[in-house]
Fold each of these.
Amino acid sequence: MQKLHIEGGRPLFGHVPISGAKNAALPALAATLLTADTVRLRRLPNVVDIRTMTTLLQNIGSAVKRSPDSCEFVAKGDLDPVAPYDLVKTMRASSLVLGPLAGRCGRARVSLPGGCAIGSRPIDMHLAGLRSLGATIRQDRGYIEALAPRGGLVGGRIHFRRPTVTGTEDLLMAATLAKGESVLGNAAREPEVVDLANLLIKMGARIRGAGTSTIRVEGVAELGGADHAIIPDRIETGTYMVAAAISGGDLTLDGAQPEHVQPVIRKMRSAGCEVETPDATTITVANGRPLISVDVTTREHPGFPTDMQAQFMALMTQCEGESTVHETVFENRFMHALELQRMGAAITIDGSFANVRGKTRLSGTDVMASDLRASACLVLAGLAAEGRTVVHRIYHLQRGYERLADKLQAVGANIRVVD
Ligand code: UD1
């Protein structure tokens, strides 16, 4: 199994190109199932989760044509509306095909996702939403089956118990082909939801309010083709912002979207970093001064993203004073803290709170990644640590970061993938 070797202690300088957002690309891929016409997607990141979703679409019956800067998807003819266990078990976001398949085919059969390293992640809100659109939901031998009424899904009112990102995306897609109006209340406001809505609107959907808590959808009889570029990855952007700061370097992030990372920019500045946004697609981060402690509470957008929590914890180990993390989105999302402790960090955990006392000297050792963002946290800690850090289980990183080792090498990191 591949590992990453990192020799720490080198400040990073230079430019990092930001890739398309994995979490915006996944629902965009699912949306291609809503039409028999061609949907062309640009800026799809070349990461494992995107390849898994593409395989899932091909299993269902889509034809996929790749070219150097885009990919075309055509879902026509007989579709087999099933997401099998083998694919869903490696990627929970496979449940994003439930809504589009129920809307387009009147039927969807999706394996239940298994356990996950960041707590139990149910899909009950996706299912309750589909019921509100008239679907009957059955559970059968580990699979969820959604069956639309004879004439197809019907518009309805959905109120999410709490904002759910993929839940909102799933129901948004289902509602585009439902008869009549649907209202999604307490919807997620993440930029990825807005990007999906923009793609669906290009395909002919009638959607208002994406990016706010109330989204209204007027169902249409059918959707058509579109050409769409995925938004830049705000979590990858935030990860390289921390890389600049934790290594004591100076990085320019190209092709980013500063407005999507405002909560991260604010916290970086509170920690004493110099962050500038010279234009609409560039962010510079420099760290010439000692870092100071900062507190972070994760929240739904526009709050501080839970997907940046682990990376920030690595940064906090290098800040003078006591920093607190309050994780409010997921339970059990502190696995990386135990690995950071093994590198010398002073962290105590109390339920959904973590307390980090800094600045501590980190020393390189063997560490094990438990999920995607935890892996990124360990790479960042490795950049700041003395000696060699070996990150095991890097398949987690390969699920979501495009060419991570190459991008870090290009700005001066001593990092390499080892078989
Ligand atoms: C998405 C992101 C993930 C990010 C998360 C929160 C993708 C592919 N993944 O995950 O990277 O960490 O948003 O920003 O976009 N919940 C329920 N029932 C449900 C659905 C969710 O109880 O039916 C709970 C979850 O357990 C969690 C909270 O709601 O506590 C928010 O989760 P959600 O926004 O749904 O996360 P994902 O969409 O799975």
Amino acid sequence: MNETLPDTIRPIRFDGGALYLLDQRRLPGAMRENRYDDAGDVAAAIRDMVVRGAPAIGIAAAFAVVLACRSAASAAAADWRAQVERAIAQLEASRPTAVNLFWALDRMRAVLAACPSADEAEVRTLAEAQRMLAADIAANRRLGAAGAELIEPGRAVLTHCNTGSLATGGFGTALGVIRSAWAQGRIREVFADETRPWLQGARLTAWELLHDGIPVHLLCEGAAASLLRSGQVGWVIVGADRIAANGDTANKIGTYGLALLAREHGVRFMVAAPVSTIDFDTADGSGIPIEMRPESEVLELGGRAIAPPGARGWNPAFDVTPARLIDAIVTELGVVQQPDRARLAALREPIAAQ
Ligand code: MRU
């Protein structure tokens, strides 16, 4: 069944000892890959949004660790562990909110701990990063199918930011649900917020959906209230950068507002994310670090000033939606309806068994 789903984009690949990232800053104008041989350059690429989206950031960082091992191996460095750890620390400092980054780097640390040499570390970390990439795509296909089952045919959906192939290893989380549901004829129309200030919705989601043959209507965030009041939309479907143990969910700035609007208008609200996005060590949303990005991202558009000199910008990249506003958290290990601490904890055992 899955083979027939529209799914043709892959943002991350490792080939011939180098990492290739589709440069998402250039989309939709140009589809160009950048080549990376150095872990520090990958950390900069994550910070600068060449690659973005929580799972994609984690996977890119995992491959960056391979690059660090490769450099240490080719230099026959006696202190190879310290060199690789420095690279990991640099990657950890790239973006603070998406927990998948820290999850992926912890997994790489565990692999490194069992390696006797840098050569061996290069081989084993590469195998682990490739496994992570394949597992992410498989997880997205599973959660996509599970989320689609919740959608009764005949209504539209609204999504926010980009949660698709571009934001993951492939297929996507919220967009994975939308891909699956669209293929099953359950969705009448897809609406996507443009998602200021980076315009992930306009530049990436619209491009990705059209690339895979799914029509889309774009709207300014300010139009979401009217859309939800119109009665056309059955579900708002979003991804997540970090889900706290009680279900509070950090996602792209504007998500919280959408959840409030959805509740007000009787529209259901779905968060779709792999279990690697759940942070059981953070009790609730107040403990999630929220990245503040440069003011210039708000004050400029495409490099041109849109505000008068002297105006200041306020630019949190994420906000936190309280669990009580979420109807379902959809993961590859199951759907948690009306999420709370106890219901989410039920996912812990299967995660530990993985
Ligand atoms: O700043 P970004 O583009 O990295 O933010 C991405 C998001 O907020 C996505 O909605 C989230 O990572 C889920 S992606 C599967």
